[in-house]
Amino acid sequence: MAEQRYSGRPASPGLVIGPLHVLATRSAATRARAGDAAAEHARLDGALGRARDDLAALMATAGTEGEEILAFQVELLDDPALVEHARAAIDAGEPAAAAWSAALDEQIEGYVAADDEYFRARAADLDDLKTRVVDLLEGRWPDELPTVEGTILAGRDLSPSGFIAAERARLGGIALAEGSAQSHVAMLARARGLPMVVDLGAVPTGADEAILDAEHGMLVTAPDPTTRDAFAVRRRARAQTEERAVALLGSPATLPNGERVACLLNVDDPQSIEPALLDAADGVGLWRTEFLFLHRAQLPDEGEQYAAYTALLDRLTGRPVAIRTLDVGGDKPLAGVSLPSESNPFLGLRGLRLCLDRPELFRPQVRALLRAAPGRSLKVMLPMVSRASELAEARAFFDACLEELRGEGVEAAMPPLGMMVETPASAVAIDTFDADFFSIGSNDLVQYTMAASRDAGGRVAALADPLDPAVLRLIERVVAHGRATGLEVSLCGDMAAVPGCAERLLALGLRRLSVGPAALARLKLAVHDHAG
Ligand code: PEP
Ligand code: MG
User: Fold this and answer.
1) Domain harbouring 149, CATH code
2) Which atom number of ligand 1 is nearest to the Cα of residue 442?
3) Contact indicator for 9, 461 with CB cutoff of 8 Å
4) pLDDT in tens, 257-286
């Protein structure tokens, strides 16, 4: 068997060699003839009940994030609108499996059409649930799963519940012909430290063993001796690097010349972060509050937001926490908020633009933040700012809410109000903004500067290069402005999590970097090893 290479995109870093287990490609659903409607309703009820039980059993072993994903699926099972659709189709003569499939397909279509990869990835949850119930109705067995520890699981795509079930075998890695780096499975893999590559283009066949290189996004099946040797060398080097990084985690990060670099965390759901990492960070450089708003029937009110914000601030006692106001819109639907349909949502009504347009959405968050500020190290950061007037309008909104709260006799204070620098306009005209601090959002800054979508693959992905001179010049400009004015400048895009890029950012003079939890130790190592 000759060595074969498949090239894709890394979704969770790591380097592993192991036995290869290829998931069977699913055959199309057989179309059973419908019994009478009452019998089909009863079959559907039976399958939904069994699916609920099976998901509950999986949840018991799933870990926090996995449990949340499965809980979302259980919620969907209980969604009367979804089930009613299927029931109507049964009444119209459809068999239960076809009726359920059609009801889910309608929902899936909406998610697949979304412009944002995050939302497209949610389609996988619905598809997962569809398949589970259809399989139960049609008496199909789930995929045969690997039993050998360290196995690389390969397939076309993998459902979140499939991942959780497979993970019992303590997988070595995941290699998918399709898939997305933003999917729930990718998120779970990153949380578990399990190497994963997506978008390989084809499902590997005919090999028993493979090397998964989730640093470069590559799967090598039946590796030949030269490839094995090279792999062994890289693996040893990686293990040593990892060891050095972990050893530095608990200490403040300093450059070889003794200069201190603040290493902060990017946070979505604070509950999902290991306490040791929260302790090791110099604070939170970006809290994406969207996590409080998405996937729910009712938006969080002021009280719920206040409780969430103060809980994290109090957990970090005195260390700065930069909370970013809601950054959704266009392609990210919110319960109870009708958004315009836009042909190019990334350039549409999103981030601060949406919040200023919908004061009823913004006010509870602003009030909760103002109430959380007294006596706490809160900073507030505004996303997607393009012009100075937007920032001024936001400031006036904060002022008005503060006056309102004081009028009500509620304790509140104005925190430092900063902005993300993630549009080229804001970087170019940085001196026009009356912000208390700046945080460079390299993910959006790169996509808007290079006109290359942040979730694209192939040729476009190559253009979305954070080290392109155009991007670096914009960053340089913002750093220079910070130096000239004494205003704080940090960077919180994914760029800081890539060791080679962190090097460049340090060389450009940045001394505050914020990264996802999994990258904190490597960032501290990059600071420690910085050449000059
Ligand atoms: C960014 O754009 O770099 C950023 C940090 O924000 P988000 O990734 O949430 O858009
Ligand atoms: Mg952004």
Assistant:
1) 3.50.30.10
2) 3
3) yes
4) 999 999 999 998 898 888 999 999 999 999
> In a mutational test of the pocket of ligand 1, which residue from 119, 287, 331, 422 has the highest number of ligand atoms less than 8 Å from its CB?
422
Q: Which of 21, 184, 401, 530 is catalytic?
A: 184
Please tell me whether residues 297 and 386 are part of one structural domain. yes
The pair of three-digit structure tokens given for residue 279, joined into one six-digit string: 């302790």
492 Cβ below 6 A of ligand 1: yes
Query: Are 193 and 211 in a shared domain?
Result: yes
Q: Is 401 annotated in the active site?
A: no
CA 146 – ligand 2 centroid, Å: 39
Residue 62 lies in a domain: yes
pLDDT digits (tens, 9 = 90+) for 181-196: 767 788 788 877 899 9
Is there a domain that residue 335 lies in? yes
Q: If you search the block for the tokens 């997988």, which residue do you land on?
A: 171
Average model confidence (pLDDT) for the chain?
A: 89
Pairing mode, strands 196-198 and 417-421: unpaired
CATH number of the structural domain spanning residue 128: 1.10.274.10
Other beta carbons within 10 Å of 185? 30
pLDDT band at 32, cuts 50/70/90?
A: low
| Nearest residue by C-alpha to atom 4 in ligand 1 | 441
Phi, psi dihedral angles at 531 (to 5 degrees): -75, -35
Rounded Cα gap, residues 530 and 356, in angstroms: 42
Ligand nearest to the CA of 440: 1
Coil/strand/helix, residue 288: strand
How many domains, the chain? 3
Q: CA-CA distances (angstroms) from residue 131 to 41, 127, 253, 301?
A: 18, 6, 48, 35
Regarding the beta carbon of 444 and ligand 1, being less than 6 Å apart is answered yes
Which listed ligand is nearest to 267 at the C-alpha?
A: 1
CB of 442 shorter than 6 A to ligand 1:
yes
Let me know whether 134 and 149 are in one domain. no
Question: Among 138, 153, 179, which residue terminates a domain?
Answer: 138
Over range 34-62, report the average pLDDT: 84
Q: Are 236 and 47 in contact (CB under 8 A)?
A: no
| Whether residues 290 and 333 fall in one domain | yes
Let me know if residue 479 belongs to a domain: no
Count the alpha carbons within 13 Å of 450 in the hemisphere toward its beta carbon. Answer: 26
Same domain, 16 and 45: no
439 CB under 6 A from ligand 1?
Answer: no
Task: Please say if 492 is a catalytic residue.
Answer: yes
Interacting residues of 109 by C-beta distance below 8 A, sequence separation 6+: none
pTM of the model: 0.75
* Ligand 1 mutation pick, 445, 475, 492, max ligand atoms within 8 A of CB: 492
Which of ligand 1's atoms lies nearest the C-alpha of 383?
6
Q: Return the amino acid letter for 390.
A: E
Express the helix, strand and coil content of the chain in percent, nearest 5 each: 50, 15, 35
Note whether residue 101 is domain-resident. Answer: yes
